[in-house]
Amino acid sequence: MKSPCLKIPKISGQKAIEIVRQLEIYNKSLKIEQKGSYLYVPLLREPMEKERIAVKKVVQNGEFVVHDFSMLISRPKNFVELLSEELPPHLIASLPRSADFVGDIAVVEIPTELDVHKHKIGEAILTTNKRVRTVLAKVSAIGGVYRTRKFQLIAGEPKTVTAHREYGCIFYVDLAKAYFSPRLSSEHARVARLVNEGETILDMFAGVGPFAVQIARLHEKVRVYAVDVNPDAVEFLNKNIAANRVLAKVTPVLGDVREVVHDRFAGVADRVIMNLPEKAIEYVDVACEALKSTGGIMHYYAFTEASEPPKTAEIRLVEATEKAHRKVDKIIGFRTVRATAPYTWQVVVDAKIR
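Above: the chain sequence. Below: its structure as tokens.
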């Protein structure tokens, strides 16, 4: 469509665009075009005399002409916006507002009332996220000894294996065989920053290694023992240790952490990480056994509900520590890590144990 515009040499293009935006006469529905060494910047209307003067003060070598422009295609910002044009209005409120992105896989929870539209939702996520190759829908809760869940493919390539990057580390994972949550990325990095050089760390429920690997990548002189009972998780843990070049700092161990600590790691750790919020309380005695006789730091994860006082996790940790013949010397920190369900949160208590 024909529109008034500012014709300007490419070398002055950035200044020209900035000034017409400041004057609020830039037409962002049309596409800026280039012909030869000139740019054509579309305008909403013919500029007034004072606007022409303002432009000339910034770019002396421009001229106001009329040009035939192409319309700029507006893309939906996210899959919810795209689906709002395709689904019945009464279902829009039930749409999931976000997805978890693990590498090039998107994981989404589909409400029951939207089940017949799940493939349409999957395609919308693919359309609005160019890096995504696969969209999986959760079909079960996390459960079992290995903390896995079932998925259903709703769009894209049929796979559950991917490579995920966070804070300069790469993690290979099979979502169907090992637990991994991208929502914990900032928590992995936070704990890694708290570690001091020279420490020995026990990662009691290591999974594919997000805590262990980040700690080892960030520090020169650490020893991390990464334990998990899931053989598939340990297989990927080994792969991630090699991929991130921390073979000399991280020791992967397959086995039940209670037996492993009793047999190999009693009294060796300066710091223990207990990221098993549904059952960590049952392993406080194991963490106490792993810590050095002089004490150390415990990162204890738990779930809390709205009906419970915020300090419930701290109280339970103190009681469990005393039963293990240790004592919480100081609560270093308490924070909410993430929401996991309506009125339920994952929290972490950082405690100094003696």
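The first strand starts at residue 2 and ends at 9.
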